[in-house]
């Protein structure tokens, strides 16, 4: 995607061929800062502290983190230790484990002396595959939007109104995004589209990141409070919902940013189509019941009790929202059961949120 006319991915190899550069997403939307990661410890920090976030990008960052680790110690023991450290950074997104497993599978058969070069090559391939997968699922999702637009246009509508939750745009992936890839493809196709952007408390990834990239890309959008979506649906102001996911079970349950489940309930009650966009590495084929089997990350309560924003003089300041002495809790994700989902949008097409639906697209997993 482009920022002020310059094309960017969210992660790329530094000019020296060793460091890994990322956009520090904790500084957005008010500052655009690029950081160079030069060690596996820095890659771990980038994932843990959410300098990078979003399931596909976490996987890409972990892959490059293992490449950085190979520079430090490419032995079996060194790689195994790095795997464990990187895997422990974020528990919910399955892409993290998937990417690390891909890296280990590629490296362990090789002589130690060949592993560093191979690690960088495999990490780059994982990034390229993510871009291709998200571009393809964007086309599949755009077809849904286009068909809906033909019906709405015939009824006199001026635009498609899409609601999304959290950030599942290109900032959450290597490029294109998941939930927003269909939006960008729709814009390219000339479909008039407007996006309702949930603020997505407590970290405000919608207001800070989704709004920022839609703004960069020139896509009409409006930031709303998290609790506004149901009201908009009741009044016919949402034509469809598309969200991303950090882990999807083989039976079609979807784990995404906290609050997604409530949007799915509102959509079901109001007859609004509710889609989930995901590249295939986000599918966890080892589990079936998302509510019981997916580990839900609990993050620092400070994310709930404090907020950072831009002051009148342009400086970034953190302020406390809740009173001293009031406890807080900060669950990062919730699970939306498959029964509430209209369909899953993947790089191989759209399917029902079910085991049969997923196996129809990925028969090799049967």
Automatic annotation (TrEMBL):
Signal peptide: none annotated. This is Methylthioribose-1-phosphate isomerase. GO terms for molecular function: S-methyl-5-thioribose-1-phosphate isomerase activity. It is an enzyme of class 5 (isomerase). It catalyses: 5-(methylsulfanyl)-alpha-D-ribose 1-phosphate = 5-(methylsulfanyl)-D-ribulose 1-phosphate. PANTHER family: METHYLTHIORIBOSE-1-PHOSPHATE ISOMERASE (PTHR43475:SF1). Coiled coil: none annotated. Gene3D superfamilies: translation initiation factor eif-2b, domain 1 (1.20.120.420), Translation initiation factor eif-2b, domain 2 (3.40.50.10470). Substrate binds at residues 53-55, 90, 205, 256-257. Pathway: Amino-acid biosynthesis; L-methionine biosynthesis via salvage pathway; L-methionine from S-methyl-5-thio-alpha-D-ribose 1-phosphate: step 1/6. Its EC number is 5.3.1.23. Keywords: Amino-acid biosynthesis, Isomerase, Methionine biosynthesis. The record marks 166 as: Transition state stabilizer. Catalyzes the interconversion of methylthioribose-1-phosphate (MTR-1-P) into methylthioribulose-1-phosphate (MTRu-1-P). It comes from the Bacteria. Belongs to the EIF-2B alpha/beta/delta subunits family. MtnA subfamily. Pfam families: IF-2B. The active site is at residue 246.
């Amino acid at each position: 995607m482009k920022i002020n006319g310059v094309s960017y991915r969210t992660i790329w190899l530094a000019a020296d061929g060793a460091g890994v550069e990322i956009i520090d997403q904790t500084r957005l939307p008010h500052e655009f800062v690029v950081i160079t990661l030069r060690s596996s410890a820095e890659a771990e920090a980038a994932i843990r502290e959410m300098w990078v976030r979003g399931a596909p990008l976490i996987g890409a960052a972990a892959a490059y983190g293992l490449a950085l680790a190979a520079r430090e110690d490419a032995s079996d023991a060194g790689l195994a230790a790095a795997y464990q450290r990187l895997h422990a950074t974020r528990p919910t997104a399955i892409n993290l484990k998937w990417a690390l497993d891909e890296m280990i599978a590629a490296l362990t058969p090789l002589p130690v002396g060949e592993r560093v070069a191979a690690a960088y090559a495999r990490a780059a391939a994982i990034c390229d595959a993510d871009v291709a997968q998200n571009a393809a699922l964007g086309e599949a999702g755009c077809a849904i939007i286009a068909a809906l637009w033909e019906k709405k246009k015939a009824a006199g509508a001026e635009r498609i109104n899409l609601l999304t939750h959290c950030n599942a745009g290109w900032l959450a992936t290597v490029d294109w995004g998941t939930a927003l890839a269909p939006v960008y493809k729709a814009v390219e196709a000339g479909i008039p589209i407007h996006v309702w952007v949930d603020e997505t408390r407590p970290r405000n990834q919608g207001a800070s990141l989704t709004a920022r990239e839609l703004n960069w890309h020139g896509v009409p959008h409006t930031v709303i409070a998290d609790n506004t979506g149901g009201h908009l649906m009741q009044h016919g102001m949402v034509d469809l919902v598309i969200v991303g996911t950090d882990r999807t079970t083989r039976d079609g349950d979807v784990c995404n940013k906290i609050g997604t489940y409530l949007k799915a309930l509102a959509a079901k009650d109001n007859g609004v189509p509710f889609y989930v966009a995901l590249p295939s590495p986000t599918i966890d084929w080892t589990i079936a019941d998302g509510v019981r089997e997916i580990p839900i990350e609990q993050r620092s309560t400070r994310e709930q009790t404090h907020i950072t924003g831009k002051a009148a003089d342009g400086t970034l300041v953190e302020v406390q929202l809740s009173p001293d002495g009031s406890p807080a809790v900060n669950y990062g994700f919730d699970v939306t059961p498959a029964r509430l989902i209209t369909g899953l949008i993947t790089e191989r097409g759209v399917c029902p949120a079910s085991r049969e639906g997923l196996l129809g697209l990925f028969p090799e997993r049967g």
